[in-house]
Every structure is written in structure tokens, then in C-alpha cells.
Specification:
By secondary structure, the protein is an alpha/beta fold. It contains 13 helices and eleven strands. α3 links the parallel β3 and β4. The two termini are 47 Å apart. The mean pLDDT is 92.
């Protein structure tokens, strides 16, 4: 067992996906975890999963991690600060400025509070979806503010490092503008695009490939949760959506008459701008390395994907990423294998020699 940086008990309030994942990760390091939730069932499930124990009257945690919906986060944080006067309290809500402002307004002791936000999750919620390794390698923002000193707030840094996440320090305002761009607006765009499918003919939907699935994957997220998130971060999200609307208007104007002088140039410039934007996104391990995709046809039979991965390892090529798409109407999958560009030709040749069918 790897020893924790934390010394003392940690109280986790909210035994859903994030809270139970935090608890499981800490328990794996031997930390005494106290579980609390408005739902006794969630607590019971999390305890059965080995995520921690029920509260005791004698508990004196060094850290409280609040993992509840955004619209009640500030209220719960204030209650935990009052209940445990020697503990530092953090939360994992996806919006930070409003929570800090509300705590200051109600007179809470923000000298023991620092907000944080792990950029990790899954499509499913609840304690049964939790994983001890959910945060490994993921960014985890600490929303620093002047009211708390470094020494007192360092216990939150210890939590983040214990769980294998990458610590990022931002102000609450910087965080909220950042997540508006990389999380909240993409959710809106994905949902609005998927809404176009409601009246689409079945024949059109039958043509759906990986591209449209990529664009709309997060459209299946919980509407109730997103109403809270978008309401709490409305101003930055609105600013970006207004600029996005301007971008769409340029496309619409150019497509009104695609044969008009300059129309194709405008479309090309907008698309090229998207290329440049994607290139700025960090790749594997946060680097800017770009990979080449080799598409391999995999029969839809047990063991075939495992055999492909094993043979890629035997060839001596490092697999950088993998995505699997099923071919409509055929018992075959398309494995999109991403490798370094200099390894792509050798991998293609050697897989073909081993009987694999390479698409494209």
C-alpha cells in the first residue's frame, strides 16, 4: 500500500460518482474516510464498496471534501465549516466564483475553505460507477484566493496528489472562464446539435458514423445537473456563445451563395481555423504530439480486439490511443489505432502480413 500524504481522517460529503471515487482512492492509500450523504442508500452502497465508514460523534477530520450538486454546494460547505472548526473544507463543484461569493456573503470562515474542481467524470453517476483511479492523470484545479494561507490549504494539494491528479492553480474567475470554453459551451453545442435528430428521418440517422457520434456524445448528460452548472456560470458561457454565433453567421452568409466571389475562401478560412484550434489542445500526457491513425477491420467475434492489441505489442509499436467504431450492417468493427507517425507504415505493413485488413 502506498502511504498517503494526508495525516488524519477525511470526511467526504456526497457519496455519488465523484465522492465515492475520492473515497475509494483515499482508502487505497490507507486513509480513514468518513462518508456522509443525504441518501442513506448511497452511503450504504459506498461503505459496501469499501469506500469508507459511517460518521461518529467523535470524528475530527483534517479535511472535508464536499461532493454535492452545485446549487447546494455553498450551503453544505458553510455547514461543514461550522460543524468542524479545525478542518479545511474543499468542494468539487464545476463552478467556483459563485460559491466563494456566497460563502463570503453569509460570513463563513473562508480562511479554512478553498474550492477545487477535478476535470474527470463518467457518463454514468452514483456510487456504483465510482473508480479509485478516476482522477489519475486528470487536471484538478485549486481555486486559490487571498483568504486562505498556503500552509493551511496545502492539505487540499495533498488530496489531489494522493489521487494521482495533476494540480492546477487558478483564481476562481480564471477557472470559470476556462471551463466555460472547454466544458460548458461544448455541452451546449453538443446538445443543440443532437436536438436536430428529433425530427430527422430514420434513413438519415441510419447513416450516422463516428463523426456525428463524437460531436454529440456528451448530449446524453443529465439535464438537471447542467441547468445548475450553466445557471451558475451563465455570463462566461453567454459571452462565448455570442462569439460562436458570429462564427456561425459567417458560415451561413458564405453558404448562401457558395459560388459568390470569396465565399469558398471564407469557408476554407473558418475550417482551417478549426484545424489550428485543435492543434492547440494538449495530447497524450499533456504534450502537443500528433499521431497517425491506422484503421484496422476487426471481426465482431470474442477475442479479436484482444488479439489485435497483443499483436501490436509484439510488433513493438506503442499504442497511443484507440477508438472502436462498428460498421453499420456488417459484423465488423473499425479499430482506429493511433501511433506516432514514424511507426505507422511499419505497423500497417506488419499487420497486413499477419492477416489483418487495413481500411483506407
Amino acid at each position: 500500500m502506498v502511504v498517503s500524504r494526508l495525516t488524519g481522517s477525511v470526511r467526504v460529503v456526497g457519496a455519488g460518482l465523484l465522492g465515492t471515487s475520492v473515497a475509494l482512492g483515499l482508502r487505497a492509500r490507507g486513509v480513514d474516510v468518513i462518508l456522509a450523504d443525504a441518501s442513506p442508500t448511497h452511503v450504504a452502497i459506498a461503505i459496501d464498496l469499501g469506500a469508507g465508514r459511517a460518521p461518529l460523534d467523535s470524528d475530527e477530520p483534517v479535511l472535508v471534501v464536499v461532493c454535492v450538486p452545485p446549487d447546494v454546494t455553498a450551503r453544505v460547505v458553510a455547514a461543514e465549516l461550522a460543524a468542524f472548526p479545525d478542518a479545511v473544507v474543499t468542494d468539487v463543484a464545476s463552478v467556483k466564483s459563485g460559491i466563494l461569493d456566497e460563502l463570503v456573503t453569509v460570513g463563513a470562515d473562508v480562511s479554512r475553505y478553498v474550492g477545487s474542481h477535478p476535470l474527470a467524470g463518467r457518463e454514468r453517476g452514483g456510487p456504483l460507477a465510482a473508480r479509485a483511479d478516476l482522477f489519475v492523470g486528470r487536471p484538478w484545479v485549486v481555486a486559490v484566493h487571498d483568504g486562505i494561507g498556503y500552509q493551511r490549504g496545502s492539505v487540499v494539494d495533498d488530496l489531489i496528489l494522493d489521487l494521482g491528479a495533476t494540480l492546477v492553480e487558478l483564481t476562481a474567475e480564471e477557472h470559470d472562464r476556462g471551463v466555460a470554453l472547454i466544458s460548458h459551451v461544448p455541452q451546449v453545442v453538443s446538445s443543440v446539435m443532437a436536438r436536430r435528430f428529433l425530427d430527422a428521418p430514420n434513413a438519415a440517422l441510419g447513416l450516422a458514423g463516428q463523426g456525428v457520434r463524437d460531436v454529440t456524445r456528451i448530449a446524453g448528460s443529465d439535464p438537471d445537473l447542467w441547468v445548475q452548472i450553466l445557471g451558475a456560470n451563465a455570463a462566461p458561457v453567454r459571452d462565448i456563445l455570442l462569439a460562436y454565433r458570429d462564427d456561425l453567421d459567417r458560415f451561413i452568409d458564405a453558404l448562401a451563395d457558395p459560388t459568390a466571389p470569396g465565399a469558398r475562401k471564407r469557408v476554407a478560412e473558418e475550417l482551417a481555423g478549426g484545424n489550428l484550434g485543435v492543434e492547440r489542445l494538449p495530447g497524450k500526457h499533456g504534450t502537443d504530439k500528433r499521431f497517425t491513425t491506422v484503421i484496422v477491420m476487426v471481426d465482431d467475434r470474442p477475442g479479436q480486439l484482444a488479439r489485435l492489441l497483443a499483436e501490436i505489442g509484439e510488433i513493438g509499436v506503442n499504442l497511443e490511443d484507440l477508438r472502436l467504431e462498428h460498421s453499420p450492417g456488417r459484423q465488423v468493427g473499425l479499430a482506429e489505432v493511433q501511433v506516432l507517425p514514424e511507426a505507422a507504415d511499419r505497423l500497417t505493413t506488419e499487420l497486413a502480413e499477419r492477416g489483418w485488413r487495413i481500411a483506407g
